[in-house]
Automatic annotation (TrEMBL), chain A:
The active site is at Y292, H300, K347. This is tRNA-splicing endonuclease subunit Sen2. CDD domains: tRNA-intron_lyase_C. GO terms for biological process: tRNA-type intron splice site recognition and cleavage. It comes from Lentinus tigrinus ALCF2SS1-6. The keyword tRNA processing applies. It comes from the Eukaryota.
TrEMBL record, chain B:
Belongs to the SEN15 family. GO terms for biological process: tRNA splicing, via endonucleolytic cleavage and ligation. The keyword tRNA processing applies. This is tRNA-splicing endonuclease subunit Sen15 domain-containing protein.
């Protein structure tokens, strides 16, 4: 079955087996897991029903702060898997989502490709789409030539068949080879022995917002200082995450600013995470955030969020050393463009207004801890295009 | 970052152009390790205060140019023109836009109007 033909089924095109597998692997929505140990006595069992026996399992993951890329790196493979599988935190830096670089390299070496990673599926789909476009262009050229010839001879042209996304079938062509294959004349076992052992150079990259959420709210992540490799305490983390946006760091104009980009983005991230959404980056759709109900492996994101900072006190905007994106009044053409891009991929656009408190009513003391987040307010506006001629209800 | 195998090749440029260090590192690793580009070489672009790259895509012969930048930067057409000039006027340049979660979006920029291929 072609990967580019639109799916006939309403729901997920994956089989029931894959869905059950996903439900099992991604069962925990957060890295913290509640577990109730089996109890032998009757009283223990009854107490367990009241929740007194439940224990909280904390995976205690570790990450390193990287100021250059403004992120936290988790290099331990076990921790990366836990953070990805329980809440879809982070992204493999050499992969589309889950860190799968090592698996892809191993697949490529074996050239067996029994289980395709999502990147390999994407390559296959792109190769098919390219072939489809070439077939379609050739069919259009043929139809045009036929029409010309028919016109010259003064007869009706034969009806042309131009393939569309739904009708095109991929033909087994030797030119479509997306997976890199090893040299065919060598025995597969020899290939594996001759190449050097693979070192996993990929890490899970957490944005500063994701890392802070895990550190402050769930207490399941420890962030290490990049130079000393010592764990950073909450106050240092809070300060360093803001300082990455201040270049150079000790300039006094950056001190005690409520509109630091980290704070504004964190307010929006925290808001949606605490409501239960899985929040990921939205650069592929020209937006700031994408909201998933359960996670990227289950269904495409339903909502695309643009974070719009609003200053409570306009004077703060004048004096701001930061140039916050989307803080100026936007044109309707900008809004229309983003809405169209997302409507094309069946996503609803949400404008999230984050109100930054006035510099005058926030003390430096308050800003030195996450308690200042209580002063930020988040309002969201859902946007849908309305066509009066067609939408009568 | 200094423990990463790519650090050695990149370190002179990471310290010379610190503001573009993050995007250079991410783009270099993506091209070399994930996209499996060959003959990757770094090209200094002093007019844009960063380092660009030239390399070959797998199964393709032409030498392609990539300029990394970050999503938080604002670029001007003058900046883009400078990259073309400093890379030796290639037919097109790929702009690698990096984000903090390590997603990279590549845009192909050509000097002038280009007809779609198909």
């Amino acid at each position: 079955m072609s990967l580019i033909t639109p799916s006939r089924q309403k729901g997920s095109p994956k089989g029931g087996g894959r869905r059950a597998e996903n439900n099992r692997i991604y069962a925990h929505p957060l890295p913290l897991v509640f577990s109730a140990p089996e109890s032998r006595s009757r009283i223990g069992h009854v107490l367990g029903l009241f929740g007194t026996n439940t224990r909280l399992e904390n995976p205690h993951c570790e990450g390193v702060f990287d100021p250059a890329t403004r992120s936290v790196w988790v290099t331990n493979e076990k921790d990366s898997m836990i953070l990805w599988r329980r809440g879809f935190f982070g992204k493999g830096d050499l992969s589309r989502s889950e860190p799968s670089w090592l698996a892809r390299q191993v697949n490529a070496r074996k050239a067996a490709g029994k289980y395709m990673t999502s990147e390999e599926v994407r390559e296959k789909r792109r190769a098919e789409r390219k072939q489809f476009k070439m077939d379609r262009a050739a069919a259009i050229a043929r139809a045009a030539a036929e029409a010309e010839a028919a016109f010259a001879e003064g007869r009706e042209a034969a009806p042309a068949f131009i393939p569309s996304g739904a009708t095109w079938k991929p033909h087994q062509s030797s030119e479509i080879s997306s997976l890199p294959e090893g040299p065919p004349e060598k025995h597969p076992d020899e290939v594996v022995e001759e190449l050097e052992p693979l070192e996993n150079v990929e890490h899970l990259q957490l944005t500063l917002q994701e890392a802070f959420f895990l550190v402050w709210n769930l207490d399941c992540l420890t962030v290490l200082d990049p130079h000393t490799r010592e764990p950073m305490d909450l106050r240092r983390i809070w300060q360093s995450f803001q300082e990455v946006h201040c270049i150079p760091v000790d300039l006094p104009v950056y001190a005690n600013r409520c509109d630091n980009i980290f704070l504004v983005n964190y307010a929006a991230y925290h808001y949606y995470r605490s409501l239960g959404w899985v929040v990921k980056g939205g650069i592929k759709f020209c937006v700031d955030l994408l909201l998933y109900k359960r996670g990227p492996v289950f269904h495409h994101a339903e909502f695309a969020v643009v974070v719009i900072p609003v200053y409570e006190d306009p004077a703060d905007k004048e004096s701001s050393p930061f140039n916050l994106p989307n803080s100026d009044t936007f044109s309707w053409s900008w809004l229309s463009t983003i809405n169209r891009v997302n409507a094309q991929v069946q996503k609803t656009l949400i404008l999230t207004y984050v109100t930054i408190p006035a510099q005058s009513r926030v003390s430096a003391d308050l800003l030195s801890s996450p308690a200042c987040l209580a002063l930020y307010s988040v309002r969201d506006v859902v946007l849908r295009r309305f066509i009066p001629a067609r939408m009568r209800d | 970052m200094d423990k990463h195998p790519s650090y050695e090749a990149l370190s002179p440029y990471l310290s010379k152009y610190p503001k573009a260090a993050g995007s250079l590192f991410q783009t270099y690793n993506d091209l070399r390790l994930a996209q499996q580009w060959t003959d990757l070489e770094l090209v200094e672009l002093p007019g844009c205060s960063r380092c660009g790259m030239r390399g070959r895509r797998p199964q393709m012969d032409d030498l392609l140019c990539v300029v990394p930048c970050s999503l938080s930067e604002s670029l001007s057409t003058d900046w883009i023109r400078t990259t073309f000039k400093e890379l030796g006027s290639p037919p097109h340049v790929y702009l690698a836009i990096n984000t903090e979660d390590s997603s990279i979006v590549y845009y192909k920029i050509s000097p002038g109007i280009v007809k779609p291929p198909l």
